[in-house]
Amino acid sequence: MMRLLRLIYILHIAVRYGLDEFFLAHARLAWLRAVVRVVLFWRSLKQPRAVRLRLALERLGPIFVKFGQVLSTRRDLLPDDIADELARLQDQVPPFPPEQVAAVLQQVYGRPHDQVFRELDLLPVASASVAQVHFALLPDGREVAVKILRPGIRRVIDKDLALLDTAAGLIEVLFADGKRLRPREVVAEFAHHLDEELDLLREAANASQLRRNFQDQRLLIVPEVFWDWCHSEVMVMERIHGIPVSHVERIREVGIDIPALARRGVEIFFTQVFRDGFFHADMHPGNIFVAPDGRYIGVDFGIMGTLTERDKHYLAQNFLAFFNRDYKQVARAHLEAGWVPPQTREDQFEAAIRSVCEPVFDRPIKEISFGRFLLRLFQVSRRFNMEIQPQLVMLQKTLLNVEGLGRQLDPDLDLWTTAKPFLERWMSEQVGWRALVRHVKQEAPRWAALLPALPRRLEEALVRDPLPALQQGFARLLAEQKRRNRWLAVIAGLLALLVVIALWSRLSGGP
């Protein structure tokens, strides 16, 4: 019943703000537009369509606001008026009032906020769909940003997620592609990340991890977290000073090299994904700033993506194969990963991928229609019954954000050329001699702990009789001989490993 009421409310907001205009824009539906005008004669739509769309998304809640944030970065897919207006959703969502701010802090700390902070501005500096940020001073005078969760936000999100889950179930039942797209798993993945975003202690832990990953701060600055003031509903971190990445003219005025900045953004993305397997998955322009020296500053770490070693290896293989135009390798990687049915003909899948990718190479971003590119990729995946991978949905969303950000900074950015050297270096570290050396060094301490116990374990294994008492004679002798040979092979392997460890220790100057 609650889901039905929520659906009715969504339809009410859509009608009230005239969102039917977006769905009835096609010339073939002119007759239906006339019918709607007659039926909804009472409606007065004085504001521009972009403003009405933004207001409707704000009224519908955080999930719809996040959808608008993602769209705002895709200026290649949207008219300028809509893209400009949706950009306001990145950090200009209407805030909750100061009295609620004070009440939340009172509840969290058990005392008034003026006894916790030396100073606190009750008017937010930024307000987003899930939380808003206030500037403050700690008792020792350090400048901090205080992020406060919106009161009652979990209840609203739970209702929308329940509605999305129902819609996903209908898609699976009613559409031919429903099961292949795995919509319920995608919604579950999205719900998992939203649940983490609603716990600011998790966000603080994410920020600490990302700060540790980029501890040299050569490319990316991550604010320090002040744990003594953190709570599941309040997060306190170092205040940063920078220029919003969307303010390109201001960045240019301070003398920052814009093309170099765009290339560093690509490097940061691929470093997070392939080196760490831990990446910022909400990289819209409202969460990215630029320091005066040209380094990036990241904020809002509520949604982070993770990748397994298998995922990273698969993705790196595919990216490199794409960059090298080795479509046979792309097809083979999909088959080996089980992402397409095993009966798929490799040559046909290769030809389909080639037809999609060749038109976009050797072109700057400004000349590539990523909307058409994604549409053709979807057509290929549908033709070959390729399954959607829920664990990569956040990565796909982030890649769209990064591409949109790169387009804003430098439309002439060559994404392929910028990323290829990084991926080649990463792959050489994963499968080359460097990988062998690194794995030996990682395993050496474990082997050092196991080797002293090896003679005892060998003796126990050799004196144990695994054969039934009734098996005697030649069969028993043969089995014992095989067992001896197997243990000899194990011992030989261990000795070889010891030699490798000793040589490496010698070469690296160790004991």
What's the arrangement of secondary structure elements?
Elements: H1 2-16, H2 20-23, H3 30-39, H4 49-60, H5 62-72, H6 80-86, H7 98-109, E1 119-120, E2 126-127, E3 131-137, E4 143-149, H8 153-174, H9 178-181, H10 183-197, H11 200-213, E5 220-221, E6 234-238, E7 243-244, H12 248-253, H13 258-276, E8 278-280, E9 288-290, E10 296-298, E11 304-306, H14 309-323, H15 327-337, H16 346-357, H17 370-383, H18 393-409, H19 415-431, H20 433-450, H21 454-463, H22 473-507
Parallel strand pairs: 5-10
Antiparallel strand pairs: 1-3, 2-3, 3-4, 4-6, 7-9, 8-11, 9-10
Please tell me about this protein's structure:
With 511 residues, this protein is an alpha+beta fold. Among the domains are: 2-90, no CATH class; 155-193; 306-431, no CATH class; 434-507. The chain has 22 helices and eleven strands. It has helices spanning 2-16, 20-23, 30-39, 49-60, 62-72, 80-86, 98-109, 153-174, 178-181, 183-197, 200-213, 248-253, 258-276, 309-323, 327-337, 346-357, 370-383, 393-409, 415-431, 433-450, 454-463, 473-507; strands at residues 119-120, 126-127, 131-137, 143-149, 220-221, 234-238, 243-244, 278-280, 288-290, 296-298, 304-306. Strands 1, 2, 3, 4 and 6 form a five-stranded antiparallel sheet that branches. A hairpin with a 5-residue loop joins β3 and β4 (143-149). α1 (2-16) packs across α8 (153-174). The longest helix has 35 residues, at 473-507. The radius of gyration is 29 Å and the shape is globular. InterPro entries: ABC1_dom, Kinase-like_dom_sf, UbiB, UbiB_bact, UbiB_kinase. Pathway: Cofactor biosynthesis; ubiquinone biosynthesis [regulation].
